[in-house]
């Protein structure tokens, strides 16, 4: 029997076993708690409430991110460097919410009827969701730091162009694809008791590979980018503080300050949604918790919170950016024929 894992990345808290039915069918980002089949039907919230939550996230996220993509592509004034990164962030979120119904269907069907190719696609996109958001936010943070630095020094940035932002965005996508490639390779359909599951199938020793995949995701998907972002914003705040103290320094203009604040809030919301997910990985690596219904519910909540990040960003743009708000309003206006 091949060793398998019903997780495609960083499972919160719980380990998997091929001898039990996994409650996490349809959730490939890493939630991995199991209960015997005789007990699974008693937990209505796990089989009804959470699919409903996922469906709401899917509907809201797909609508909001599609609106962001439409606005940036259609409105000439929206074609800025920051908005290019926001566009790619919205595309990544849209891609994830677009395939979320397939994961919901697997959860409700208690089976994977979609074949191995689609299994690899779904697990890959789940991981794009983990890595792409934080990497684009890292790039946005670097961009904000360079803007603040140039403003403090009263220098222009001729290299900061819309075309350069396109090239950088493409490089980020290529980097994320390379990072996710190992998960794509190991993804496959495993049959157990006539029930098919879309899982990661690691070679022996499975437990070592499984822990390695958690550490890999934790380091590349959280530790490195978040450390980079924290250092950048610490340096940025230091520069701004010195700028206020220096009477000869040129202050940030209102527009630049608003964009910086927006990027910071979007980043803060992303960390709020994803930090519990990655912290649960540390718990899983350092402790051996017994699977209980409460632990399973907590794990589902953590994954739901990480999923929710894919639908929150459009609302942040609408509330924090005047140009986005005006463009959204114009898009929704009903014009006479």
Automatic annotation (TrEMBL):
User: For this UniProt entry, which segments traverse the membrane?
Assistant: 46-73, 85-104, 134-152, 164-191, 215-238, 259-278, 298-320
Q: How does it sit in the membrane?
A: Multi-pass membrane protein
GO biological process terms, semicolon-separated? neuropeptide signaling pathway
- Tell me the superkingdom of the source: Eukaryota
* Location relative to the cell: Cell membrane
Q: Which residues form the G-protein coupled receptors family 1 profile domain?
A: 64-317
Q: Which CDD domains match?
A: 7tmA_NPBWR
Entry's Gene Ontology cellular component terms: neuron projection; plasma membrane
Cross-referenced InterPro entries, in alphabetical order? GPCR_Rhodpsn, GPCR_Rhodpsn_7TM
* Keyword field: Cell membrane, Disulfide bond, G-protein coupled receptor, Glycoprotein, Membrane, Neuropeptide, Receptor, Transducer, Transmembrane, Transmembrane helix
Give any GO molecular function from the UniProt entry. Answer: G protein-coupled receptor activity
Report whether Transport shows up as a keyword of the record: no
What is the recorded name of this protein? Neuropeptides B/W receptor type 2-like
Per the UniProt record, the source organism is Solea senegalensis (Senegalese sole)
């Amino acid at each position: 029997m091949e060793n398998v894992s019903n997780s495609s990345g960083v499972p919160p808290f719980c380990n998997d076993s091929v001898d039990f039915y996994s409650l996490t069918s349809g959730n490939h980002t890493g939630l991995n708690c199991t209960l015997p089949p005789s007990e699974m039907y008693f937990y209505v919230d796990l089989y009804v409430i959470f699919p409903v939550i996922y469906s709401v996230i899917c509907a809201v996220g797909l609508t909001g991110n599609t609106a962001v993509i439409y606005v940036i592509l259609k409105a000439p004034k929206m074609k800025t460097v920051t908005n290019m990164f926001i566009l790619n962030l919205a595309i990544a979120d849209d891609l994830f919410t677009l395939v979320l119904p397939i994961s919901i269907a697997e959860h409700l069907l208690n089976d994977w009827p979609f074949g191995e190719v689609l299994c690899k696609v779904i697990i890959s996109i789940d991981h794009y969701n983990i890595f792409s958001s934080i990497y684009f936010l890292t790039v946005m943070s670097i961009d904000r730091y360079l803007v603040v630095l140039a403003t403090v020094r009263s220098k222009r940035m001729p290299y900061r162009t819309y075309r350069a932002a396109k090239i950088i965005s493409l490089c980020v996508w290529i980097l994320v694809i390379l990072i996710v490639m190992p998960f794509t390779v190991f993804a496959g359909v495993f049959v157990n008791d006539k029930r098919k599951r879309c899982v990661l199938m690691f070679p022996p020793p499975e437990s070592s590979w499984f822990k390695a995949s958690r550490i890999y995701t934790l380091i590349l998907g959280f530790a490195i980018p978040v450390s980079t972002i924290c250092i950048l914003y610490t340096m940025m705040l230091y520069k701004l503080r010195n700028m206020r103290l220096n009477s000869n320094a040129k202050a940030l203009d209102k527009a630049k300050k608003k964009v910086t604040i927006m990027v910071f809030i979007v980043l803060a919301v992303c960390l709020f949604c994803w930090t519990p997910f990655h912290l649960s990985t540390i718990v899983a690596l350092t402790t051996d918790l017994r699977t209980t219904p409460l632990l399973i519910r907590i794990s589902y909540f953590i994954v739901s919170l990480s999923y929710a990040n894919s639908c929150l960003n459009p609302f942040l743009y609408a509330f924090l950016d005047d140009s986005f708000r005006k463009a959204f309003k114009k898009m929704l206006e009903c014009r006479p024929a």
